[in-house]
Amino acid sequence: MKPLPLPVRLAAGLAVTAVEQARKLPQQLAGLPVTVVSEALQLSMRIQQQVTELAIKGDDALSGLRPAEEEPEWATFDEDGDPDEETPGEGDEDPWEAEEHALAADEQTAPPAVLPDYDELTLPQLRARLRTLSAEDLEQLLAHERTHAARPEFTGMLARRIANLDVHP
Question: Which of 44, 55, 88, 121 would disulfide-bridge 125, Cβ 3.0–4.6 Å?
Answer without folding.
Answer: 121
